[in-house]
Amino acid sequence: MTSAGKPRRAAPGARKTAGVPQARLFERLGLRTPADFATHLPLRYEDETRITPIGAARPGAHALFEGEIVDSEIRFGPRRELQATLADESGRLGLRWLHVYPGQQARLHAGRRVRARGEVRAGYHGLEIVHPLITEPGTPLPDTLTPVYPTTQGLPQAALRKAIARALDEADLGDTLPAAVREAYRLADFEPSLRLLHHPGPDISLESLAEHNHPAWRRIKFDELLAQQLALADARAARRAQAARSLKGDGSLTGRLLAGLPFEPTGAQTRAVAQIGADLARTHPMHRLLQGDVGSGKTLVAAFAAAQAIESGAQVAVMAPTEILAEQLWRKLSEWLAPLGVAAVWLTGGLPAAERRRALQAMARGEARLAVGTQALIQDKVEFESLGLVISDEQHRFGVGQRLALNRKGDQARYRPHQLSMSATPIPRTLAMAFFADMDVSVLDELPPGRVPVRTRLFDDRRRDEVLARVGEVVRAGRQAYWVCPLVEESEALQLQTAVDTHELLRAALPDLRVGLMHGRLPAREKSEVMDAFRAGDIDLLVSTTVIEVGVDVPNAGLMVIEHAERFGLAQLHQLRGRVGRGGGEATCVLLYQPPLSAIARERLRAMYETTDGFEIARRDLAQRGPGELLGLRQSGQALLRFADLESDEDLLEQAREAAAWLSADFPEHARAHRQRWMAGADQYLRS
Q1: In the chain, what is the greatest distance between 2 CA atoms, to the nearest angstrom?
Q2: Which of 166, 250, 437, 543 has the greatest number of C-beta atoms within 10 Å?
Q3: Could you give the CA distance from residue 364 to residue 379 in angstroms, rounded to a whole number?
Q4: How far apart are CA 344 and CA 324, in angstroms?
Q5: What does the similarity note say (predicted)?
Q6: Can you tell me whether residue 97 is helix, strand or coil?
Q7: 493-532 burial string, b = 16+ CB within 10 Å, else e?
Q8: Does CATH number 3.90.1150.10 belong to domain 50-135?
Q9: Beta sheet of 287-292, edge-to-edge order
């Protein structure tokens, strides 16, 4: 076993000598131990190893120049600034300071020879550097590239470099991978790779460093992915070692639920119900993800899971991220389970005190076998008599801590509840390998009979009149429509139409239509009343913010207009599109955008126009946004992957999965040391 398996030391010398304020700044970056500092790698590099002729300066490049100040003056315009010109035999370069300090101009007098370093940019009068770093000529040049590290406000690069240099001498940098593994995957040694990335020589390609293609980067990315796979494997093993109540069921509820359905479940639903049923019957906690595109029937699968748990004597908790989605689940589950005699309660933050008290008592006494609600379910006062199954809908919309809190409502002394997570955001393959390797996954890859793909059309905002005419035609033909806006109140910064203003404009433009308004700031009772009226057909056109993004099911809605579609995320646009066409027949989603479009917005709208496949949408969304928001880890502050990239490093991820099994079986001490180096403190987020 290598020396890397030693326990982590308390903190590097950098933290001890930095003083309390600086130590807090290090903490903000997650830098506590020598290993933390040693693996805090540069964002980019500046080449101070050579002096660049001014004639070779290029916009966007960081470089070091040496020459003579030929002029220097303070100029007054919109602001007071110092401007100077640096010249050498090859050309001239402007230097500019937007903040002028006493004596600064005197130190930059004409005829003085200096070195100036910074990023070259195109100015009004040619190339220039704004706020260059000025040093004396003649001092020795460094022999390695200068690293630029991720930092936080108040923490200068010089302090980070000093602390990291000290940590590299203090940290245990022994290799956690045995020689056999390094050779099998052609990996560079760990310590030389790490030191090279902190201080690369000038002969190393800056492009290979920037693109993370250098063998040293490959080793670091492999290590990160391997540590994650080891942690996921450990999480799965730990879960299998926990006890859960076997909820095998006797068919008394599930059989009646199936018999009472007015339709036949799809093959995918039947398969998912069987998989979940088998998991519930086991004596270790289920940890299954149910994923399927919008409208694929996840709620029915959840109803069968709940029925099996309840007929086995357990309580079930169903948590949704918004009151509207929670209410939709409440309505659907009650529609199917209440006729079977299942006592259920509804719990949200907006409940009157007396109703809330009754719901809490029914849950604690075990009288309520099913509880549906929002984050109100995880509050301290909420207790269950025998919680056996936790269902989280749109699980990525919750913070990790919230999902953990509900899971802990079970009987901690004896049993953990089974856990079913549902998502209408399909998980791309690489994301599933990287973050769901410890979970079992059921996929609903069929839509119920009668559902046809929603047609998507793009309209420039200047064609608004055509869109209004289309809304009128659809409603007068007997269908209903949504008009979605991104904000409730005016925002000068974004200059977006508000839902309130749009509601008034549409009432004036379409006076024969009954136009309703829904937004997140409405009291819960009003929201419920508006949605009831829309479901009942008493509202023709519902103007809304994104509170209707998920879960809302109005079969007669056949048209969705999304205002300022360029401002929405790709997954959000796909979810909104899924609100129409749920009752069969043709449906249309109109993306109303305001030009000019950014490159990212153009890609989003193109993706929406080109495909209705949720998995393809998710793949493109992952490429644009990264995994954080898809997983709901953004709220936790946890970095998911600091160095590896799921799109470009799929081959490394495959190798890391294979190596994790190899290390666990043949080199358990190396596996433990490797995970300790890279995953300390992040384990709980893989268990949620």
Answers
A1: 95
A2: 543
A3: 13
A4: 18
A5: Belongs to the helicase family. RecG subfamily.
A6: strand
A7: eeebbbbbbbbebbbeebeebbbbbbbeebeeeebeebbe
A8: no
A9: 344-347, 370-373, 315-319, 387-393, 418-423, 287-292, 440-444
194-to-46, 217, 417 alpha-carbon distances in Å: 18, 8, 43
Every domain of the chain and the residues it spans = 3-39+147-211, 50-135, 217-450+647-688, 455-611
β-strands 133-135, 113-123 pairing: antiparallel
Provide the token pair at 471: 């809304």
Q: How many CA atoms lie within 13 A of 180 on its CB side?
A: 6
CATH of domain 455-611: 3.40.50.300
Question: What gap in Å lies between CA 216 and CA 193, rounded to an integer?
Answer: 4
Residue 496: pLDDT band (50, 70, 90) is low
Using one digit for the tens of pLDDT, what is the confidence trace for 85-122?
Answer: 999 999 999 999 988 888 888 889 999 999 999 999 99
Share in percent of the chain as helix, strand, coil (round to 5): 45, 20, 40
b/e sequence 327-357, b meaning 16+ C-beta within 10 Å: bbbbbbbbebbeebebebbbbbeebeeeebe
Would you say the CATH fold of 455-611 matches that of 50-135?
no
Contacts of 681 (CB under 8 A, 6+ apart): none
Tokens encoding 188: 């560079």
Identify which of 396, 441, 436 has the alpha carbon closest to the alpha carbon of residue 657: 436
Encode 375-398: b = buried (16+ Cβ within 10 Å), e = exposed.
bbbbeeebebebbbbbbbbbbbbb
Q: Are 277 and 304 in contact (CB under 8 A)?
A: yes
pLDDT at 521: 78
* pLDDT number for residue 4: 44
Tokens of 377: 């379910």
**CB neighbours of 424 closer than 8 A, spacing ≥ 6?**
291, 292, 293, 294, 296, 298, 394, 550, 575, 578, 614
Q: Indicate whether 587 pLDDT > 70.
A: yes
Residues 6+ apart with CB under 8 A from 329: 299, 302, 318, 320, 372, 393, 551
List beta partners, residue 444: 292
Cα(354)–Cα(54) distance, rounded to whole angstroms? 77
Q: Length of the chain in residues, anyone?
A: 688
Asked if the model's pLDDT at residue 408 lies above 80, the reply is: no
N-terminal to C-terminal alpha carbon distance within the chain:
32
**Pairwise CA distance, residues 250 & 313, whole Å:** 10
pLDDT over 50 at 524, yes or no = yes
Does 632 have pLDDT greater than 60? no
- The pLDDT value recorded for residue 463 is 93
